[in-house]
Write a structure and sequence with these properties.
single chain; alpha+beta; three-stranded antiparallel β-sheet; 10 strands; DNA-binding
Length: 222
DNA sequence: ACATTAAGTGATT
DNA sequence: AATCACTTAATGT
């Protein structure tokens, strides 16, 4: 490669190959390398605000991103997480015409994100069959995840939602000690601190978690 | 020692 | 399950 500007570092390139070599043809991977831009983020960086215009679609290389809905009072509700190879369905649905984000995205851990200009989306959709498959598949996966989230919201009580939330968080961070306060949890689940404190107490009595100040240890799950 | 912030609790809606 | 009002406990300055 003789280009003066190489937006890719070796690690990202390898990761991309690792993940997609059997999914994408080499020409497509080359295209991605040519037009994609990798950015690294610290934990807690805001990738997307509601109302922000989206010009690129994100593809997670390392780390994880949480996607949430937020109302005008700033109350938030967690929708789902993105991990390696995941892309955001909301972006996909908007890629045909320039539009604004309806969600907020924040990195859950330090992360490397690959950005692909939305113009390339359509181009690749017709040019690469594997890309088309990938996009449709991603859309499908997200759709199902959303349905799960709605189901959880509609039919499960707070205690179950809280427990699911803690489990997901442990899965995503691969860490059984979660550095989070009751207040933060309450916000993500769109509940109140008092309610979470009471339910956490309950979970603790059931032996599922051990509580400390500023963090919880999730004992057993699955 | 004091202020600040996280977590616990009883009562009320 | 949410909110209020208050207490208790941990932590930082």
């Amino acid at each position: 490669m003789t280009t003066t500007f190489t937006p890719f570092n070796v690690s990202c390139y390898n990761k991309l190959h690792e993940k997609f070599q059997f999914l994408f043809e080499p020409e497509l991977i080359n295209e991605i390398c040519k037009t994609g831009m990798v950015k690294t983020y610290k934990e807690g960086s805001v990738l997307m605000e509601i109302g922000q215009t989206l010009s690129h679609m994100p593809l997670v290389i390392t780390g994880s991103v949480k996607v949430m809905k937020e109302d005008k009072e700033g109350n938030e509700l967690l929708l789902y997480y993105l991990e390696l190879g995941d892309t955001c369905a909301v972006t996909l649905s908007c890629c045909t015409k320039p539009s604004k984000s309806t969600i907020k995205a924040i990195t859950e851990s330090d992360a490397e994100i690959l950005f692909i200009p939305v113009e390339k989306m359509e181009e690749w959709m017709v040019k690469f069959k594997t890309w088309r498959g990938f996009v449709l598949d991603s859309y499908n996966v997200r759709m199902n995840e959303m349905l799960d989230a709605i189901d959880n919201l509609a039919f499960n009580n707070m205690e179950e939602r809280l427990y699911k939330y803690l489990r997901d968080k442990v899965m995503i961070t691969k860490e059984s000690k979660l550095h989070i306060t009751h207040f933060q949890i309450a916000n993500e689940l769109h509940s109140s601190r008092v309610v979470i404190s009471r339910l956490m107490k309950k979970l603790e009595n059931e032996g599922l978690v051990i509580q400390h100040r500023n963090y919880v240890e999730v004992k057993e799950f699955m």
